[in-house]
UniProtKB/TrEMBL annotation:
Matches recorded under CDD domains: PBP2_HisGL3
NCBIfam families per record: hisG, HisG_C-term
Class of the enzyme per the UniProt entry, highest EC level: transferase
Localization of this protein: Cytoplasm
Organism ancestry: Bacteria, Pseudomonadati, Pseudomonadota, Gammaproteobacteria, Kangiellales
Keywords: Amino-acid biosynthesis, ATP-binding, Cytoplasm, Glycosyltransferase, Histidine biosynthesis, Magnesium, Metal-binding, Nucleotide-binding, Transferase
Alphabetical list of Gene3D superfamilies matching this protein: 3.30.70.120, Periplasmic binding protein-like II
One GO molecular-function entry: ATP phosphoribosyltransferase activity
E.C. number: 2.4.2.17
Pathway terms, separated by semicolons: Amino-acid biosynthesis; L-histidine biosynthesis; L-histidine from 5-phospho-alpha-D-ribose 1-diphosphate: step 1/9
Residue ranges constituting the Histidine biosynthesis HisG C-terminal domain according to the UniProt record: 209-280
Name by which UniProt lists this protein: ATP phosphoribosyltransferase
Keyword ATP-binding: yes
Role, per record: Catalyzes the condensation of ATP and 5-phosphoribose 1-diphosphate to form N'-(5'-phosphoribosyl)-ATP (PR-ATP). Has a crucial role in the pathway because the rate of histidine biosynthesis seems to be controlled primarily by regulation of HisG enzymatic activity.
Amino acid sequence: MALKMVIPKGKLYDKVSELLSDIGLTLVGDSRNYRPQLFGCDIEVKLLKSQNIPEMVALGQHDIGFAGMDWILEQEADVEVLEDLGFNPVKLVSCIPEEWDWNEVKQRKIIVASEYKKISAKYLDQLGVPYQLLRAYGATEVFPPEDADMVIDNTSTGSTIRANRLKIVDTVMESSTQFIANKSVLDDPEKRKQIDDLLLLMRGVLNGRKRVLLEMNCSEDSIDKVVDLLPAMRAPTVSRLYNADGFAIKAAIERKLIKDLLPKLITAGATDILETPIRKVL
């Protein structure tokens, strides 16, 4: 029986599609087509709004899917989180009008608007502030000051918050896209094998995106200095150059380290440096 996968509509669709492509699966369709085809495997795909995915996977309507941790927690969805993909990182933040004093606001009962009623209620209970919570259906930032004293909403850059003359007073939680599965489907050996294989390839792609392959040459006099600089996954590969004095060195390096590492390698005696993207690290 085919695996049933659910993918979020909207801006996350392209990132999921790219990830599937990088593991060798071709998604044919777009975010307006609710039933795209996934070629290269026996998986049925359907698109839903992000908010609906955790609950549908928990109910067993779909075997696997992609959803933000915010909506998993908001719906208290009983799903298995298989991997934090890191896509669409956002913060859930509490905001009040920029000219208000937060310490003064906390002294009275406040009206709070949010799409996240369960997360908000838990946060406000812990805060110990008397409140009335309103369910918002999008455009939460327009509520203050006339219709609410505070909003709890997600943000990636804070630009929408600032544009509506609000200020952040607290971070409620951080969220990013998770690869999730229905718990009972993991008891099916055939489907579990399919899911484990997908997960292995996804992790390989995600690890590959974090690294580049560095190749370089160096003389015998500088080999120790160059190798000592290389934070390889285990140890760099070193081999003698053909018919020449010196060595060829190869290592998978974290992408974020490259900017500072290259000048040091050159100073240590590395030459002919090549930097190559890595598709997968398994």
